Amino acid sequence: MRKKIINPELSEFERFVLFEKGTEPPFSGEYENHFEKGIYVCKNCGIPLYNSSDKFHSGCGWPAFDDEIPGAVFKQIDRDGIRTEIVCAYCGAHLGHVFYGEGFTKKNVRHCVNSVSLKFIPEGQKPPIDRMFFAGGCFWGVEHLFKQLHGVVDTRVGYMGGHWPNPTYEQVCTGLTGHLETVEVIFDPKKIDEEQLIKYFFEIHDFTQENGQGPDIGEQYKSAIFYTNEKQKEIAEKVIEELKKHYKVATQLRRASTFWIAEDYHQDYYEKTGKTPYCHYRRKIF
User: Fold this and answer.
1) Spatial distance between the Cα atoms of 200 and 219, rounded to a whole number of angstroms
2) CA separation for the pair 174, 1 (Å, rounded)
3) Is 138 in the active site?
4) Which candidate in 42, 88, 138, 279 is catalytic?
5) CB neighbours of residue 1 within 10 Å
6) Annotated catalytic, 60?
7) How does strand 180-187 pair with strand 152-160?
8) 8 Å CB contact between 164 and 230
9) What pLDDT digit, counting tens, does each position of 115-155 carry?
10) Neighbour count for residue 124 (Cβ, 10 Å)
């Protein structure tokens, strides 16, 4: 379930590329030879996609990156059945294609991206929106409480951290896929910062429990923060060290990976059912 977002400021050609999977002519894009420090966000929704440090010159006529921001890009078989298409993992906008084994960089990966799919944010400036991923037991309750936090603009529930592609809820519940029930938190950096989000997360679940959360026991219910950049990682480490002075902290700190969106009936569960969380509530600890 990608978010159906269409930026009203997009030009007709940008809409063609982003939503009809078009391609800009080679060597015509604004960012082909652009190497300033900063990040590249989705032209449609504004979510961060690529770091300038991962950009390189391939000579192919389009912007090239050998890595993406963790959890930001979703890969799928192109409609031609041969190439691998890359889209924004949040809104589904078409970015381009990814190629392997060409030897351009040590990572041996080339994300070939249309300039019109991107917007550059210079170093030191905040993107329109950003994301973090949190696992703290049943994702229904974690999502419900994050939705109440000022500065959070959207949430989705899904699965992260495992080794099985596109898992179902039933598969995750076996504990064999390695995934945790995870909430993607989309936030406005101008209204709330990463430290506030992380501290709130620790206040809405029992971060001392090692084998699950409350009555929910199992691999998928473990506590974890999945970071998408070094700033998030450093702040989380700082908060965890602060907590360890008084508590035993079971929360894992892991680099974000592919976020597999959960089935529709899991999204906004408590809003749909009118029920309330059975093992999540906020308690002040900071």
Assistant:
1) 23
2) 23
3) yes
4) 138
5) 11
6) no
7) antiparallel
8) no
9) 999 999 999 999 999 999 999 999 999 999 999 999 999 99
10) 7
What are φ and ψ of residue 111, in 5° steps?
-85, 110
pLDDT digits (tens, 9 = 90+) for 64-95: 999 999 999 999 999 999 999 999 999 999 99
Dist. CA 94–CA 197, nearest whole Å: 29
**Burial class of residue 147 (count of CB atoms within 10 Å of its CB; 0-12, 13-18, 19+):** middle
Could you tell me where the DSSP H helices lie in 178-219?
194-203
pLDDT value of residue 71:
94
CA-to-CA separations, 165 to 18, 26, 179, 211, 258, in angstroms, rounded: 25, 33, 10, 24, 9
DSSP string, 129-164: -EEEEEEESSHHHHHHHHTTSTTEEEEEEEEES-SS
Q: Could you tell me which residues come within 8 angstroms of residue 101 by beta carbon, excluding any fewer than 6 positions away? A: 108
Helical ranges in the chain per DSSP H: 12-20, 139-146, 169-173, 194-203, 230-243, 269-273
Q: Which of 45, 91, 112, 279 is catalytic?
A: 112
Tokens of 94: 């078409």
Residue 245 to residue 58: CA distance in whole angstroms = 49
Contact 273, 262 (CB under 8 A): no
- pLDDT, one tens digit per residue, over 151-178 is 999 999 999 999 999 999 999 999 999 9
Residue 278 phi, psi dihedral angles, 5° rounding: -100, -15
Q: Where are the beta strands (DSSP E) in 172-214?
A: 180-187, 212-213
> Six-digit token pair at 106?
């040590």
